[in-house]
Amino acid sequence: MIPLTVPDLSGNEAAYLQRCIESTFVSSIGEFVTDFEAAVAEASGAVAGVATSAGTTALHLALATLRVGRGDLVILPDYTFIASANAISMAGARPWFMDICRDSWTLDPVMLEAALDDQTVERDGVCVHRETGERVAAIMPVHTLGHPADMDAIRIIAQRHSLPIIADAAAALGARYKGRPIGNLADISCLSFNGNKTITSGGGGMILCNDKSLIARAQHLNSTARLGTNYLHDEAAFNYRMTNIQAAVGLAQIERLEEFLAAKRRIARAYREALSDAKGVTFFPEAEWAESAHWFSGIVLEDGDRVNEIVADLTKAEIQARAFWLPMHVQPPYKDCPRGGSLSIASDVAPRVLTLPCSTNLSSGDQARVIEVLRGLII
Ligand SMILES: *Cc1c(COP(=O)(O)O)cnc(C)c1O
Description:
This protein is of the alpha+beta class.
């Protein structure tokens, strides 16, 4: 079976794990955690990183760090992985869904601006959603599939309404926005190192931030808001820390970031070149101002009804492929959340996406086989 996406652990992973175990520092304190945080922050252009147990917990920690909580609304694009919405729920808040742009599949700044202008009022310096009376507390753009959101446009709108931005950058390590890396585009950006991401720590995540006081607050909340060596804690907080074992794997992985990014780009380009003559097939977008990290490769079918049948046929040929995210507004826990407007682009795109094998160690022979079988199905 050619897998959809599996990690390449053939670098220093085993050696660092061995060293980690021999040091006995296997828990949430250790040199690998510190080194991994520094390496990721440097690779993404951020001042500092705070490592966490997952991308989801990084998002929750970011929300708590910015004091987003019970009764709040957080603006979120309708097309994302459900973890973004779940983190908002974990904070006691609810998502307020906006549509995506067709040329990037990321948060639509036009809808964002119109919804904030028309559907909120400012009361005592607080942005309030008119219909529900809830405070609008933050904007959470998503760098969909590793493609950055249009952050300059979003930042101008956010500033006008005094809203902080938490970017769900889970799969975007290595992406660029107008030539800039993604660690410095939002108040806080959150990464994931889940097993299927471009680099993995087994499981894990990280907050990226440039504000020293926010970094300190995130670190404080991440270690139970403990005040000193006595057991006194000044807030209800978390233990979302990454372990040294996870960071040992992560550090070995990030040493190969450029190589992995180049592989992802090469794989995406090869599918595009080999399938560009197929009728009714398009590709994942890349806006002219963006350099996607190409977390996933795949195609977009004109006829979404064919996705499941093609997945089944590829599976029969021992090729793993999959349909992708559903819009958030159809997910049972989120179907009643407010909407900034029509979610028609997310609804149109989501059911037509088909993801294809794109492991960083996918051989050109295996990719040629995927292409050959797929051509037989769609041409
Ligand atoms: C992977 C992903 C997450 C979740 O990360 P975990 O580490 O699995 O918790 C969140 N948001 C997006 C957009 C993702 O792709």
